[in-house]
Amino acid sequence: MNLLSIGASYRTADVAALEKLAIPESGLPDLLQKLVAQPYVGEAVVVSTCNRVEVYAAVTGFHGGLGDICNVLAEHSGIPANELAGHLYVHYGEAAVQHSFRVSSGLDSMVVGEAQILGQLRDAYHAATEVDSAGRLMHELMQQALRVGKRAHAETGIDRAGQSVVTAALDVAADHLGGDLTGRSALVIGAGAMGALSVATLTRTGVGPLRVTNRSAERADRLAEAYSAIAVPFADLDSALGEVDIVVTATAATDPVLTRERLTRVLAARTGAEHPLIVLDLAVPRDVAPDAADLPGLVVVDIDGLAASRRALPAAAETAAVEQIVASEVDNFLGWLRGAEIAPTVAALRTRAEEVVSAEMRKLISRRPEFTEEQRGDVSRTLHRVVQQLLHSPTVRVRQLAAEPGGDQYAALLRELFDLDVPLAATANAVPEIGGKA
After folding, report:
1. Cβ pair 183, 245 in contact under 8 A
2. Same domain, yes or no, for 349 and 425?
3. What are the pLDDT digits (tens) for 37-71?
4. In Å, what is the CA distance from 169 to each residue of 63, 127, 181?
5. Can you give the pTM of this predicted structure?
6. What residues act catalytically?
7. How far is CA 91 from the centre of its chain?
């Protein structure tokens, strides 16, 4: 088995493609099960956020795994496979490990160093665990990626500015509102994870009064109460839109919440306003209908616009320190993989030794039937101890050697020297082959 990561992000795809690829929480279990039902895919974890959709998988072959995953994504998104390929990036073997650690550390984020990706990775891992699409390899990769991300944030200042997609979007909004958002009224549409982050960030920024609305009134009430905001019934969305300076929308709706018709009505009621209505659309799929973006008196900033803004590309000196952490942790993970790969071979060697001892004991008993049960037990235990002592140092040492670069050769040598029959499935389920290139 080998590691393969395939995805599309703000770096390779526009919002139109990302919203087709986006996987709603309710659809994630079915997609995961569809992935692991493919011939070349043994395990899978899927990450779907506002600016990336990625599949991490354990596959039995690069080309077969790539084809299987691309076909599933093409079917899910409705994007033809040949067109979808232009939006995807592929990482294989060691490169897949490195990519997962860079993602968890925030190095691959639209806003470098943002910490929200850790929660998103944790949710993706939990979803895969729930449907049993994560096996030993995915469990280890996800657990280590989460640990690396936490280490990067704890040991460096990469997130000391508290940057997130929301703060970057608010920076863009400030450009349209004189540079200061203090005292500006705002409305957050959506009470999920991104909505909650938006409310928290707006509160820290000094925006107010702050309103919150959501299709589920109960969730909006809880979120508003937590931040002393005002909960607005979703049925009153039009009137709320007409009373604010900034709108942050981050729902999980599959169709636009802010249609051209709705926004036309709202903007008509704002005639004479001294500044445009700023809508920060952080949802994928988009909450603002594409045909509404050109309405007079409206400024829409979506993921595409945010990616193109200078705020989305901060140059943090701390990134070098995080890159060093990632490089070190990748080496550690590859060492674990190489060490784990030899485990089935060591187990097969010990099994062979036990078989030899048992066979010799049967021969001895047939030749010396006068041995009592106690004598037979003494001889058997002595033989087992001798074999275990003889194997102890070599097996410990071979595990150490296998963890070093090029260590995969030691498993092959043991199998050849002792004529061990180790099923391919055993080694495949233990670890991937390392060093593959895409």
Report:
1. no
2. yes
3. 999 999 999 999 988 999 999 999 999 999 999 99
4. 39, 29, 12
5. 0.72
6. 50
7. 14
